[in-house]
Design goal:
By secondary structure, this protein is of the alpha+beta class. The protein is built from three helices and six strands. The chain has a single domain, classed as Nuclear Transport Factor 2, Chain: A (Roll).
Length: 131
């Protein structure tokens, strides 16, 4: 009986670690936005990143996306970032829908998509559209 309890505990621990590991990159991206630290978010960028700002989408390299997003967030410093919805439509992708509020009162709808690639969740798309 002790062996069975030990086995169940180990399996539960593995699932808990996997769930935390999968959730961690998305939490780091959200914290990077809240703290205006795009360089922290960029470590999760894939090689190419579609960035949509006010319904205009452009596909950037990882470095270009960092520059464009840094410029956006320097002009629209986050006062608050509220998560409205999040989920995982399948085991290989996660999304967040949020609301970014700036000190000037501007509000942006934010959509972030991350997908599992090479055993790591990478940011595949970000949309920032003014309400």
């Amino acid at each position: 009986m002790k062996n069975f309890i030990l086995l169940v505990s180990c399996i539960f621990s593995l699932f808990t670690v996997n769930a935390q590991t999968a959730r961690q990159p998305m939490e780091e991206v959200v914290n990077a936005i809240k703290n205006n630290r795009i360089e922290d978010m960029s470590k999760f960028f894939d090689n190419i990143v579609p960035v949509t700002i006010n319904n205009t989408q452009t596909i950037y390299s990882r470095n270009q996306a960092e520059v464009v997003l840094k410029d956006f967030f320097d002009k629209n410093i986050p006062k608050d970032f509220l998560i409205m919805d999040n989920g995982s439509p399948n085991n290989s992708s996660k999304f967040i829908i949020g609301s970014l509020i700036t000190p000037g009162g501007n509000k942006y709808n934010v959509y972030i998509l991350m997908k599992l690639k090479d055993n790591m969740y990478l940011l595949q798309e970000i949309r920032l559209n003014r309400e």
